[in-house]
Each structure stands twice: as C-alpha cells, then as structure tokens.
Amino acid sequence: MGMIKAVFFDFDGTLVDYDSVLGRACEMAALTLKNILRGKGIEVSYNILLDLVFSVERRYAKTTLVDRNEWWKIILRELNIPTTLSSEELNRVTLAYWSEIMKAKPFSNVEYTLKYLKSKGYKLGIITNTDGLHSMKRTRIKRSGLMGYFDLVIVAGEDTEKQKPDPEPFLKAVKEFNLTPSECVMVGDTLSSDIEGAKRVGLITVYIRRGRLRTDSESIADYVIDDIVELTRLL
User: What count of Cα atoms within 13 Å lies in the side-chain half-sphere of residue 126?
Assistant: First the structure.
C-alpha cells in the first residue's frame, strides 16, 4: 500500500456487529410506540408497527436521515394516524431503540487487529456518521470498549456539518493527523458512504464484505476483504 501512516474505520458493521442487535432494537421501538398510541386510545397491531420499523430502518439507516425521531413520524404518516407525538414521547421510542443497539459487541478479530496496527505504529481513527441523537455515537463507541485504541474520533454531522459520503469528515480526519489523503486508509462496510466518499478525496479504500455476495459495484474499492483480520496482511 505504500507509505501508509493512518487507518480510519467506520463503526457500525465494521467494528461492531450492529445487525446482531438490530432485531431486538426494532422490537422495542415497535412495542414502545404501540404503548404510547394505546395511551392515546389508538390501537395498532404490534406486527404492523414492527414491519414499519424494519421498513424505515432499511430505507434510512444508511442515509443521512439518521434522526430516529423522524422515523417514527414517518411511520405515523404512513399509517394515516391523526395524532402527533410530543418530543418526550418520540424520545421514549428512540431511547428504547438505542438501549438495545448499545449492546452491540465488537466482531471477532477486531481487538486483535487494532492491537496489531497500533504495534506497527499506525495512527488509528474512526469516521462515523451521527446517530441523530447528540453524543449517542460517542457513548456507544465508549461502551464497546474500543475507544482506547483510537487517536481520533470524527462523528460526522456533529464534529462536521456534513455526513459521509461528503468529503468534509474525511478531509477533517486527514487534517487532524497532519497527513495527506494518500497516506491514509479508510476501512468500511458500506460502499456508498465509506468507500465512495473516501475514494473521492484520495484515500486508499478497503471494503469489508462480511459474507455478503460479491457485486460489480465493490470494484470501486482498492481492496476487498471478508474479515478485518485480513488487514494484518495488507498493512
């Protein structure tokens, strides 16, 4: 890879197993929303609400519409429910959701790989999008037990105006390390936000497939790996 001096990582799906806790998070959001609506005299099937929670998750989780409170408003509109929820009620649903996501654990080999990279003298950073609830992403990173490995954390949308795949968070991270983009690697599991965004500003890119089917679109990445431990062979 040449004279690489820093390695940046996405967080969800790259370092921690977001998908393993997603089902329970959606269930808790649907249950909390159902109970709030019942308190207003509105009965909606739990299964219908759960399907809609999964639907908005699929549609928006990898976009810049990350404010979960807005997701619940979308669900109410799609159900044509003639009521609005207060900020406090929306926050109850959102916190029920995040309380489960908070339990996501690092993938196997993550800590081994980070220790290896640190031992080789690489600067390590995280470039991740906001969760839509201020400080939630940093809280989750700390809760994962991984914060101590990183020299820098950029929460795009909080530390920067724009979120990935906009160039701003990538350029800010590179500048913070006083490096050039060609001296940095970006590792992520999402082609659109992690790989395309980083490549646009000149970073070397590594796409983690994690068992997904091969696609033609992954060819935009400089390297493709299935497990994070493969970085120990690349770097």
Answer: 24
Round to whole Å and give the CA distance between 23 and 201.
35
Same domain assignment for residues 126 and 227: yes
7 burial level (CB within 10 Å; 0-12, 13-18, 19+)? buried
Q: Is it the case that residue 219 has pLDDT exceeding 90?
A: no
Residue 76 tokens read as 């109410």
Residue 213 scores a pLDDT above 80 = no
Task: State the Cα–Cα distance between residues 29 and 52, nearest whole angstrom.
Answer: 10
Token pair recorded at residue 91: 């926050």
End residue of a domain, out of 41, 75, 101:
101
pLDDT in tens, 33-76: 999 999 999 999 999 999 999 999 999 988 889 999 999 999 99
Q: Which residues pair with 106 in a beta bridge?
A: 16
> Which residues constitute the domain of residue 118?
6-18+105-234
Helix or strand (DSSP H, E) at 94 = helix 87-101
127 and 204 part of one domain: yes
Parallel, antiparallel or unpaired: strands 123-129 and 223-225: unpaired
